Each structure stands twice: as structure tokens, then as C-alpha cells.
Amino acid sequence: MLRRSIIILTLILAVAVAGHAGNGGLALAWGDRGDGTFANPVLNADYSDLDVIRVGDKYYMTCSEFHFMGMPVLESDDMVNWRIIGQVYDNIGMPGYGDMIKYAEGTWAPALRYHDGKFWIFVCTPEEGLFMTVAEDPAGPWSPLHLVKGVAKWEDPCPFWDDNGDAYLVRSRHRAGPIIIHRMSPDGRELLDEGVTVYKGPVAEGPKMFKKDGYYYISIPEGGVSKGWQTVLRSKDVYGPYESRRVLERGSTDVNGPHQGALVETPDGDWWFYHFQSAGTRGRVVHLQPVKWIDGFPFIGEDYDGNGVGEPMKICPKPLAGLSRREVPQTSDEFDEGRLGIQWQTNHNPVSGNISFGHREGCLTIIPMQSPMLRTARNQLTQKIMGFRSEAELSFDISDMKPGDRSGLECLGKQFVGGGVMVEDVNGRRVTSVYMENDSLVVFRRPFEVAEPGKVNVRLSIDTVDGDFRFSYSLDGKNYMPLGDSFEMKEGFWKGVRTGIYAYSTTEDYGKTHFDYFRYRHDGPDLSSQNE
Fold first, then answer.
1. Which of 65, 128, 205, 437 does the annotation list as catalytic?
2. Does the annotation count 463 as an active-site position?
3. Angle of CA points 258, 384, 528, to nearest 5°
4. Catalytic residue among 32, 49, 222, 249
5. Domain spanning 30-317 has what CATH number?
6. How far from the centroid of its chain's Cα atoms is residue 117's Cα?
7. Which residues of the chain does CATH 2.115.10.20 include?
8. pLDDT per residue over 432-465, tens digit each?
9. Which residues contact 31 (CB under 8 A, 6 or more apart)?
10. What's the farthest any 2 CA atoms get from each other in the chain?
11. pTM attached to this predicted model
């Protein structure tokens, strides 16, 4: 009772402060606060349609990645601080994923489970079908994606193994609903029937199935990505009938669409719920809410408006305070370990032979491929933006670029904006310019004389609060000048805005670009006070 009173008091103060904080203060806090509490979003990045499980004393997460390769696996000691430990795959071996034409397709809403000593992921792609993969170690290697059923327009699958060994798969269908349960082989490699519809609701999707106290539960988001709520179904029989209860909604808060995620139990028997919030250019960011079980259903968050349904909380006590260092998923990369950092994801399938570390010591080298514009360029190396405000900085060597080559730092969402260096052949004369392109148009160029050693730095400043994005550049690594005008971004293809590295050529005769480092700073938890 005392602990609950402290939580409620903390929340009353937090809501009061956040309501008057405007564009700063507590309203823009997120992650581990270093005082035994955390602020939502607990992970302020686009880990959309996430699923989370606990195995022993560790927690694991995965998420949708659509046309980006491939789905990450994250690990946490305390449910709040997360690090990337692996990627499930590095390409999708189906037609189109090497042709830059599968935007918004790829992997949708995976389910992560632990069963029979192995980690399992089930996921659908909208046109190809239902896939599964397994691993003994969540960091990988994961088995090649196995096509369980070739079928279009299925989505959001989740496996479930009953106490007697019977296996099932629950799923939804494109355009969200209904909820269907199939019998499945225990090894997860095939479905054994055509499925039984157990629930119909408004945009019912994203089912996660589990068993507790003799009841079968299916936790589902309803109402759509930006305006939905979370519903929980329960029944004594796997095929129903299911009774339902709304367990989380926006209510009087400013957290729109708090739904789709995972109910997770700690070793001490406490329950928590991860969900996403559709947050514009930041994508679908991750929130974490406390759970109480009342009359056989989870009650999530706090009921501020008094209608009996939980609402999202801004500040919460950490579920497992004091167990770990403050940590956020990896971002920066000095390119000095002879391999890419685990956080990088290519836009569509990579051409691995054109990405190397052998051409110049301590550098990533990309040999560009021909493309008329950035959107269709192969080997874009991307990662999620993080936080409300952040900055990316790229240092690269342009001395081996050839006419037609374009390289630099990108900002991609619904549109593709690049800031960097382009080399042109103008009447037989080599002209090198800093430039900016927005989709297929070069909107800014400024020629300059290349000095030894041919290094250029480009920065991307990201302000998702005011909707302001801008590039700047430096030829000496110290003094930065504007690179084109500021621009707006929009989320697109079911993903939030990303940043990344690119090198492509508008001609068939291409050179190389050597990338020295990528550094990223954001407004998240201050890690500087921790000893390395």
C-alpha cells in the first residue's frame, strides 16, 4: 500500500509538471532518470510492433523492420535499459528485396518466444507469407527464415505451446482482423488446419497468446495505429468463447494509441506492459507501464479520468531498480573494428561485396552502384533516430570519388534527403561540390577546391519537437556552414525517420568513398557520469 501511494504521488506531481513544461522539462524526459525511476517513452526510438519476453533474469525484444535488414534482438537486465545483441537476418531471399521496390513490405509485427530451450520468432511479410526462425542464443546465429505457409495478406502471427504439448498459432489478417487460431506442428514448421476465427473487433490485430491461472489469454491492439487501445481476451478453452476487456487507452493523457506490445512477468511475480505510441517522425516509440491483475484481467497504468480503464503513466519506478547501468541501444561507429556496428541496417537487401574494411585502415569503404537518385540507391546503411532532439555527424574521405559519385549523410522517411559531396564532369573538368538532394532533385550545390587529405564532415541536426531538420558541413573539421535550407520530414512506409550513410553513382564509372566515423548524440539519459 505504501509503495502504491508513493507511485500515485509521484504521478500526480509528474503530470502537473509535464502539463506546464511546454517543449522542455519533464515532458521531454525519457528513459532511465538515474534516481530509481524512468520516464516514458522508456525507449524513444522506432521499435515498432515490439514483442518482449523474459528468460531467466534477462529480457529480450524484437520489432517490425519492414524493408530494413534485418530484425534486431535487444537485451536488458532491468526492462528499462536496452542494448542490441543481434540481427535475425541480413537479407530476405525473395524477389524484389534486391530491387529497392519493397518499401513498406518486409517483416511486420514479429512474435518472440522461448520454448524447448530455444528462442523462436514468427513473422509475416504481406505478400510472401508466414515465416519462422529459431536460435539457441538470442544473439544468433538464427536459422534461415523458413516459409511455414506461402500466403498473402496474413499478419501478426504468434505461436503458443500448451501445457500438454499441443501447438497453436494465432494471427490476424491484412486490414486488421479477425483473430484466427490454427493448430501447428510442435516444431513450428507447418500449420495443421485452415484456422478458426475466435474474435472480431474494430481493427483487431497484433495478437499475443499466453496462459495464466488456467485461462487462455489473447492480448490484442484495436482501433488502429494512431488512435487505438489495448484489449485482452480470456477463455477456459483455446477456441473460446472469449470474454474481452479494454485494459489501456489514451484517456486524459497525451499518449495517443497506447497499444500493441507485450505483457511480461518479472521473477518476483510483478507484471509490466510494453506498448508503442505512434509519434510522427520518431516512429512508434516504446512505453512501459505497471500492471495489476484485477478479477482475472490486467489493469495497466493509472485511471486518471475515473472510467475504469487504465491510462499511460509518464514517470514510473523502475521494475528492478539498481540492477544495471543506464544504457541505450548503440548508435555511433568509429569503423575501426573491421566490421559494421550491430546497429546498422541496410535499406533493402545489401550488396555485401561493395561494403568493405580492407581498402583503407580504420575506414568503412563503400563502392557505389549506379542509381538515378538516393531512394533507389543500394547499400544505404541506416539506423533509427533516437530521442526528441539529436545530431548525427559523418566524416569521410572523398579523394577516390569519381564524376557521377554522390556520398554523404542521409535523412530518410517518406522522402529521401541527402547532404554530402557530389563529383561532376563539367565540359571535361572535374567539379567537386558539397550538395543537398531532396528526393530526386539537387536543391543545393556549392563547388569547392579539394585540399589534402580530402576530408569532409557533414552534420544532420534533428529536432522532432519543432519539426526542423538541417544539414551543415565543414572542410576543416572545425567550422561548420549551412548545407542548404532546413527541411521538414514526414514518417513513411510504416517507419519513422532514420539517418544513415550512402554512396551511389549516376554513371557506370564509379570510384570509392571512405568513411572515417559516424557519431550520434541525443537528448536521452546522461551516461557521462558512469565509469567505463
1. 205
2. no
3. 95
4. 49
5. 2.115.10.20
6. 27
7. 30-317
8. 999 999 998 999 999 999 887 789 999 999 999 9
9. 38, 39, 41, 42, 43, 44, 80, 81, 326, 328, 524, 525
10. 80
11. 0.94
